[in-house]
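User: My collaborator sent over this chain with a note saying "see what the structure looks like." That's all I know about it. Can you take a look?
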Amino acid sequence: MYWFFVILAFLMASIKTQKPKKYQKVSVIIPAYNEEETVAKVVEVVKKVSVVDEIIVVNDGSRDNTEAEALKAGAIVINHETNKGKGQALYTGYQNAECDIIAFIDADIYNLTSAKVEAMIRPILEGKTDITKTKFSRASGRVTELTAKPLLNFFFPEISFEQPLSGQFAAKKEVLKKINFESDYGVDVGIVIDADVLGISIMEVDIGAIEHDMSPLSDLNLMANEVVRTIIGRANRYGRVTMIDDIGHDIRMSIVGLSLVILGLFTIFFVKFVPLAIGVLISVIGIILAIYYIIKVIVKSIDMFRKTPRGNLLRSFIKIHFPMIISIIVLLLMISTFIGAAHFEHGVLSIEPNSRNLIIYADDTPRDNTISVRGPYTVDTAIENESNQIRMPADAMMTLGIKANDTIQFDSENIYLINETREGEPDIFRLPIEVKKILDVDDGDVIQNSRLKEIFEGAVMTHSFENNNTTIVEKFIITSRDKHAYNFEIIIDNTSVANSTGIFKKNVTYDVAADGEYITSFNFKSNLTKSFKYDGHKVKIIFDDTNSTSIKVFTRENQDNFLNFNFKSI
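Assistant: Without extra context I'll predict from the sequence alone. Here is the result:
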C-alpha cells in the first residue's frame, strides 16, 4: 500500500496555504445637489457602519447649505463650482476615494439605515461579487418601466434586473477603472451595461423600502432622455445594433415612429415650454414613420410566415414583434385616455386629461384603507348662503386629515366649516369667493390630489374625534412636504378613544387644554407617554414611532393648544 501514501503525500504537497484576506477599506460617495435637509442625516447613518473608512460628499454646485451640513456631520466635502450632473459627481468622488471598495448613496434618502448600507457592501467584502446594485420599494419608477426596461430588453435581453436605474450601488475600485462614467442620469444604467458586457460580476441586493423626494415631471423627461441616449449609445458601441436583422431594423423604426407619436402627444399635454406646433409636428412625423415601417414589418412578417416552420412561428413572432406590439399598446392606451377626456360643446373640442393619485401606505399607522385612488377635483363657487363653508370631496378630506364638520382657517379672522359635497358632485370643490382668492384658484380649475398639500399649505385645521361623552379636537397646520411623523393614541379611563398621526418636533413644548382652558403641557420626545387627570377622568396619551410620514404639523406652544378635550356631563 506504499503507493497510497505516495499519492497522499503528493496531494498534501499540492495544497497551497491560503493567505489571510487583505483588509479592504471602504469609501462611501454621496453626490448632493441642494440637499441641506437630508445630507447630514445620511452622513450620520453611514458613519455608524463599522466597515466604512471614508465618507465623501460631492457638493454638485448646490445653492443652499449642503456643504456646511455635510462638513458639520463629519464628511469630506468636494465642491463643484457648477452643477455638472449626477454622473460627474460620482466620477469626482471615485477619483478622490482612497479605498478598495466604493459605495455610492443618494443624499436625499429619509429612511436610510446602517443595515441598508452594509447590505450593499457586505457581498463585495465577502468576495461574492465585484459590483452590487440595489433594488427597493418606492412610489415612483416611471422612467424605469416606460423607458429603460423596454430598451434593455430589446438590445440587452440578458440583463433582467428589477431596477436597472437604482441609484445606490457599490463596487471594487479596480473594476470601476474599466467602466465609462456617464456625466448625467445615464450613469446608473451605463454601469450595469458595461459590467454585463465586460463580464464583471454584478449582484442585485434588496435593501427594503426607500423614501426620498419624488422627481418632478420635467426632471423625469430629462432623465428619460439621458437614459435612452446611454442605452442606445452602449448598444452601438457593443455591436448590438448590427446584430439585429433586417426586420429588426424596420421594427426599430416603427417603434421610433410610435415613440415620436407618444412624445408629441406628451409634449402637447404635459410639457408647457414646448410650443404646440412642435408637439404636433413631432406627432405627425411619428405617424408617418410608424405607418410606413409597420407596413414594411407586416409585409416581411407575411414572407417570414411562409418560410418559417409552423412549430417555431409563435416563438419567432413574439421574439421579433414583441417590442413593437408593446409600443402600439402604450400608444393606444394613451390615445384612449385622451379620447376619454374629450369634450365637445358649442362647436369647441376640448381635451384635458387628468390622472388620479394612487396612494399606497406601507407603515403601521391604523387606517381604513392601505391603498386608495383619489382625485382629480374641479373647483366651483360656493352656493348661496354658504359663504362660511367649504364643500370638499371625501377623498380630499382624507388626504388633508380632516372630515365633515371640522374647520379650516387661513387668517386670524375667518374660519370656515368643512362640509360634504352635494349629491351628484363627488369631486367638486365648492369654495367661497374669498377662499378662491387666498388659494389662487378659479372656477373650472382641476386640482390633482397630490397638489392639495401645496394649495392648502399653511392652512390651520381643527379635526375632532367623537367618543361617547367626550369630544377631542386636534389642531395642526398643513405643510407641502411629507415629513417623518409619529402616531399617538388617547386613552381615557382605560379605554382607547382616538388615534392620530402627525409631525412633532423633538424637545418642543405642546399644550393640552380642556374646554378651551390650558391644563397641562409636555416636551415631546420619542416613545413618550403623557398622563394627567381632569374632572375625575384619567387621561393617557401614548406616542409611538411607526415609521410613517404626514403633512400635518401639530400646533405647538405659543401657537395654540395641540389638543382640546370636552368632557360632557352625563
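A starting point for your reply to your collaborator: The longest strand covers residues 470-492.
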